[in-house]
Each structure stands twice: as C-alpha cells, then as structure tokens.
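Teaching assistant's notes for section 4

Start the section by putting this record on the projector. Ask students to predict, before seeing the second block, whether Methionyl-tRNA formyltransferase will look compact or extended. Collect guesses on the board.
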Amino acid sequence: MFVELLDGIANSNIIPQEQPSDPALSLRCFPRLPQDGEINWQQSAQDLAKLVRASAEPFAGAYSFLNGEKVTIWRVHPEPIDYPYLGVPGQVIEIRYETKEVAVLTSDGMLILEEIETLKKGRRRSSDIIKSCRVRLGMNVSDEISQLKQRITELEQLIKKITKLI
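Reveal the predicted structure now:
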C-alpha cells in the first residue's frame, strides 16, 4: 500500500490534502501496552480475532492463562457454533487433532486457536500444548490468591524455623 501511495503521488493520481488544524477534528492514538492484549473470553469471537491480529508480531501478542501459566496466542480464526450448547466462555470445547487446532468458547461462538506459545513449551500448534477439553483458559483470580496465601504461610513457617536455628 505504501508503494501504491508513493506511485499515486508521483503520478498525481493521489493529491495530498492538508490535515485539519482544529484539534477537535484530530484522532489521537495513544500507545498500546502489553496488558492491552489480555483476552476476555466474554467478548465475541470476531472481536477476539481482531485483538489477536492487532496484538501479533511485532507486538507482544494477545494472551490468556492456562492452569496459571501465560499462553500467548498468535493465530486464530472465529467460527460460529451450529448446534445447541451450554458452556462458560474460555472453556476448551474441541481438540482438532487433524489440523492441530483447539476451539475455545466465547460469548457468541468459538475462537479457533491455531498457534500458541508458552514459556515451557515454546511456540507450537495449539493441540501440541492444549490436550484436554477439561480445561478453561483465563485467570482464575480466586485460585491464584489462595495459592499465594498458602505459599506465604509456608514461607513464614520456614522463616520461623530458620530464625530459631540462628
């Protein structure tokens, strides 16, 4: 598109126009931050597919969590669900072993995960990482808080033991 633009200006097919000086007519774009790529599975499959594309390289990638581990989601496509269903957004509803894709429930259909990445397993086709329909993507804040409290208690006990030895 950039080359076409330059050719159009050079050939006088595209005529540059001065931008409005009134600030109220200007669109202001503020920088995206990595946390803007966190997936909210309550959104539509179309909107989530747009988020993944907008967050893809060279940016940090859209992401979610699987069993507390961050999963970066690089390539997806939305699909409608053509049968009656009951489920919670974020639930893995289908593993497609032939295409190595994983279907995740959204508010209005499913998002097909094509390529994802974790710190432990690297970047792979989705079904190489997600192997079960008995999982749900997203951060479970209650579980995370519970695990942190348990770990703090364990560390406090360890500190007490160490200070008694000193």
